[in-house]
Amino acid sequence: METLSQAAGPGPRRRATAMESLKSIDSLSLGRTLTADDLIEFHASRLLLLVLLCGVQNRGQGTYRIDGLTKLAKLDFFVRYPEFFRRAAAHFNTSIAPDTSVPESKMIRFHYGPWDKRYYQVLPYLEARRLLAVEKSGSTYTFSLTPQGTAVSKQLSEDPSFAGLAARMREVKRVLGSRSGSSLKDLVYALFDEEVGAKQLNATIQ
User: Fold this and answer.
1) pLDDT of amino acid 2
2) Dihedrals phi, psi of 14, to nearest 5 degrees
3) What sign for the dihedral angle of Cα 24, 116, 42, 3?
4) What is residue 160's predicted lDDT score, i.e. its pLDDT?
5) What CA–CA distances, in Å, run from 137 to 9, 18, 57, 188?
6) If residue 64 lies in a helix (H) or strand (E), which one and from where to where?
7) 176 CB contacts (<8 Å, ≥6 apart)?
8) Which H or E run contains 19?
9) In whole angstroms, how far apart are CA 3 and each of 128, 136, 147, 205?
10) Strand arrangement, sheet containing 140-145
11) What single DSSP character describes residue 111?
């Protein structure tokens, strides 16, 4: 089956600014400012946790998956933007734990709502390290944790430095996890037209 890295191709529409790896920090030029958002491991860790904590579990196989790139991106959006998630939960009359976090990593407005072009680097990165299996059936991608990816994800979920992020993901799963990617996309446009829908393509969502 076609993988995401094959589908991404070399074209400029798919290409995003390359991120750095923790392994290459020592080789960076002096004076360059580097944040967690610039590190591929930062985004890779979040996506592993997202599939584990917001995905569907196959209890028989012990695996976790998210069906659809749209659903993965929209769940990631609500995880990355706590205030938008609070408003979505309120829309469904669902109470959630208070969360005053601000976005550590921002997304852009693209054709189907919130998007991050770095997915085209991070997902193949996880795939190449056999932490995530990416398959395409028809027009739908499925993202499944491998046994090794499941083990790494569970370690991350128990790490105190990821406690806040993991707690938010569990809340997102509880409130929105059962909804389809298309439903989540429609929800974003219905609730956040000014902040997302009215923005020009490639504009940053604040």
Assistant:
1) 38
2) -90, -15
3) negative
4) 97
5) 18, 28, 19, 26
6) strand 63-67
7) 75, 78, 88, 184, 187
8) none
9) 11, 7, 19, 28
10) 56-58, 63-67, 140-145, 132-137
11) T
Residue type, 117: K
Contacts of 12 (CB under 8 A, 6+ apart): none
Indicate the helix (H) or strand (E) that contains 1. none
Which tens digit of pLDDT belongs to each residue from 98-153?
Answer: 999 999 899 999 988 999 999 999 999 999 999 999 999 898 999 999 999 999 99
Token pair for residue 4? 């995401």
H helical segments located in the chain: 4-8, 40-54, 69-80, 82-91, 119-128, 147-157, 163-176, 181-191
pLDDT-derived band at 12, boundaries 50, 70, 90: very low
Q: How far is CA 189 from CA 88, 120, 181, 185, in A?
A: 11, 24, 13, 7
The position carrying tokens 């960076």 is: 28
Rounded distance between C-alpha atoms, residue 138 and residue 142, angstroms: 11
List the domain boundaries for the chain: 4-8+35-197
- End-to-end, the C-alpha distance of the chain in Å comes to 36
Around Cβ 132, how many Cβ atoms within 10 Å? 25
Cβ atoms of 172 and 78 within 8 Å: the answer is: yes
